Batch of 4 targets.
Target 1
Amino acid sequence: MECIPAIDVRRGRSVRLLQGDYANETPYGDPLEQARAYEAGGASRLHVVDLDAARSGIGENDEVIAAICANLSIPIEVGGGIRSIARAATLLDFGVDRVVIGTVAVEDPPVLKALAERFPGQVAVGLDHRSISQDGVVRRELAVRGWEVGSGVDLEKFLVELESVALAAVIVTDISRDGTLAGPDLAGLEAVLSQTSHAVIASGGIGTVADLEAVQALGSPTRFIDGVIIGKALLSGAISLAEAIAACKA
């Protein structure tokens, strides 16, 4: 299971939001310094999110992203506001290894399919969701446009639609757990493993080494979580990068 540190960028600085709330932000300094530290610490990949672009659809932190790509040798995946082939091409030209598509995947599936065909092996889909209770039934609704808008699309149904698209991975984030250190949605991740043939990367809620071990134990020897994204736990010191890497490799 790959350990993937996360760097969220807003207004050129590294930050973390609590449950995707832009009004609940904690600053963490220079994203390039953070990226260098993660690479030096043994990270094999970084997950970078342009939080400003996630809302606006405009690449507002391109200088930061380009600098990270230019100064690191490990693969960088980038998400946030990528809603066209041209935007994806711009990021890949910077040296980004993989783009993460969220809003446009839900709102305009033909664009997602075109992206996957144009950039084989370099497109992942972000499945960011919230649990909603309606008439006693809990459904997992995908959120779009910086997690601020409910799409009306259920995670389970969307996974079926994604089966015909050639993707590098799906990244599954329970928004209610993101930035909380309260633990991942193990049952939800287990369900996703059974509902898709794509590689699955877990995100949201990791707070302890035990959480990483629990995610790694999901599935079976032939069907498992391929990677886990860790943000707040590393930045807060709840887990060291060395501990996280060791737990993911165990």
Target 2
Amino acid sequence: MIGRPRLGALLYYEIITGIFGNLPGMLGYWLRRRLYPTILKSCGKNLIIGRNVTIRGGMKIRLGSDVSIDDNVVIDARGKNGCIVIERGTLISRNTILRARNATIIIGKGSDIGTNCILATDSKLKVGKNVLIAAYSYLCAGGNHNYDRSDIPIIQQGFISKGGVIIEDDVWIGSHTMIMDGVCICKGSIIGTHSLVNIDIPEGSIAYGKPAVRQSWRPGFGDESND
């Protein structure tokens, strides 16, 4: 729960989150700004933490300055090698889950993660700077179950990964989009709503569909004469 095996640290975590985690109003925001950095690996200035935010593995979580985390968010850095980094000026909207299981999630400066999103990885998940991810999107970076054997249940066969997910800078991902393991969405691209992305998307693309494919280029990108 806290990222280090100390009873005193666990009790401190329980006090901070139990007493102040659901405290309403400006007093609640002010106290969480003061106290929640003490249960994290590191934290910059001007942190905003909403109500009912769940922090797991806090000693493996690093937040930059001016980070805003809305109500009911879960930030879960589990396992010995779990690590989550949220850089300066990023917004994590309500009900979103960030889960790194013995893996790393990095969210770049100035990005905006919408409501009810899931960003989960067992390998690596990197979101660049100034990225927009709209509501109800799912970034599945690893965690695919192996199923080669028939003599034991799938749940006991471990995981396979295609290398995680990379979202480069200045990308906009529409709502209800699913991005599969092994995908890189290159700089400046736009992914339309309700898309399934299972292949790399070139820089400056406008792509959508199930599966998503490039439909056109953004102005200033690509060879528009060939479209």
Target 3
Amino acid sequence: MTENARALDIKNLHVKVEAREILKGVNLTVRPGEVHAIMGPNGSGKSTLAYTLMGHPGYQVTEGEVLVDGVNVTEMEPSERAKEGIFLAFQYPHSIPGVTMANFLRTAVNSVRETPMPPREFRATMIEKMKLLRMNQEFGGRYVNEGFSGGEKKRAEILQMAMLEPKYAVLDETDSGLDVDALRIVADGVNALLSQDRGVLVITHYQRLLNYIQPHFVHVLVGGKIVLEGGPELAHEVDRTGYEQFEPQPATV
């Protein structure tokens, strides 16, 4: 495969939830080494796009396709997409009482590998990633998201990303519910994982996250369509002017 063929390609994506069309022809290409940001108001389809990319069964693709490095994943199960290199950090991570972070991570890592990672190698890798993210090793012994603060839940998502080493990471409103200090810590973790081999799609409502995770490209999603694209400066423009300018205007009589 040539370097130019490596990309997360979203082509003319139309998606329904139940009987309602949410995405209405989204086109977007994320290449390794690039950070893209999708901004939009509530109800614009941002989270729908994230869940569709990961293969959530409640989201029906009615037209278009999603490709990972040329492989069509549109009909694949979430586990198959993970093996192809897609990762989703959830806006609202769920708790899993009784399952430690270490056991959860080991199961996740082995599910995307051809052969299981030996226990000693897994532990060494987990400790290495925790150090990179400035996390206490005791974190691995806690139950997944059980009693975690908002910031700890988001850091747990970033630790999963570090362990799985995806080709393309989708971060669905990672800044949701975080105070300034927690936001900075999570953003530092994401920045530590940026590389020329990984594309990142940051989905956010506000510009403030993009002060810490610098995007190369910004896309404004309104009404299920990308209505404007640009560089980092576009995020500041949207923060200053709001989304109302992009909303469909009512017909006049």
Target 4
Amino acid sequence: MKCGWLLLLSAIAAAVPARAQQKTGPGITGEDSLTWHGITLYGVIDIGVQYDTHSAPFTPYRPSASGNIVRQNSGESVTGITPSNMGQSRVGLQGIERLNDEFSAVFQIETFFNPQSGEIADSLKSLTVNNGRSLASQSVGVDGSSAGQAFQTAWAGFRSARFGTLTFGRQTTLLLDGTIKYDPNYNATAFGLLGASNTYSGGGAQEDNRLDSMVKYSVGFSNRVHLGALSRKIAPSPRPP
């Protein structure tokens, strides 16, 4: 890891996206709740000032803007505004609708953005803008699952306190869920190798920590045993002529 410092200016949560059925939080009255008929609007803005002793110029596209690990184009000291180092800046909707005494319908959609540039988070674009450039003229470019999609999270499914949760759509992998839960840095991009590289949570590939067309199931027993499984539909490769 390189040496540097980061000053967190603000991290604002419009509403905590933990459980949509929790309509109010500490210090929030029912009238001020951002939950309406079980649907919660929430958002996070994470932005700070960062200085790196060895880096390429910060990018407006990658979710965290900086590289946070010394890379092949890290040839100068850089100071600038960077987002999403502690947590991903995002806005989303999360909902829960009780179906009967056992099951509820649930959904979540999220858009990731970079507050300092106004760009949708796009790791792929941070790479492609460096195509054809010499190392000395490149900006930070790091791969990831964010590639300019309108929704980085988009899933729906069913939840039961007894039978667990079954969801369908674009969602996080079980490896990423476990990393966020057990990493002391909560997979924060700026404060540890797990978050800075994201290769572990993607099973060896940074772009695979979130996947489309995924079915995911999770269940817990007595808060001690947790089981999970996922399956993803992959289109078959075309046969050669």
